[in-house]
Each structure stands twice: as C-alpha cells, then as structure tokens.
Amino acid sequence: RRIKRVELETLLLVEERRKVTRESTISLYGKHYFIxxxxxxxxxxxxxxxxxxxxxxxxxxxxxxxLRLS
Length: 70
Fold this sequence. Notes:
The chain starts with a helix and ends with a strand. Strand 4 (about 45-50) and strand 5 (about 50-55) form a beta hairpin. The strands form two sheets. Strands 1-4-5-6 form a four-stranded antiparallel sheet, with no helix packed on it. A two-stranded antiparallel ribbon has the order 2-3. It contains one helix and six strands, in the order H-E-E-E-E-E-E. The protein is mainly β.
C-alpha cells in the first residue's frame, strides 16, 4: 500500500526539547537558531518536518524557519 503524505511526515518527525538562552537562541545539531525574546529561559520544542523547523511552546507553534544543514 502507498503511504499518505501526512503519515510519512508523522513517521519522519524529529522532536527535540531545548531551553532558550539569554541571547534568545537555541542550539540544534550544532546550529544556532534565533527565538523571539519573549521565550528567554523557557523550554520549547523544536520539531523538524522535512526541511523546516517549527518551534512550539504551550502546544502552539510560534516560529518557523528552514533547517540549516551546513
């Protein structure tokens, strides 16, 4: 059977918990990502879906960016 896109994305989803630094950044696999200043000191989820990184807190996505590979 052929797998639907939504099922495939769910299978390939990578989730990482990170704490936002005083500089308003997180590190994810050696790359630094800027996070809105209102989240300094908070623990957030970084979710990798395809070539995108979604940042989530309190069950809501608050920021999106492209995954940095190099």
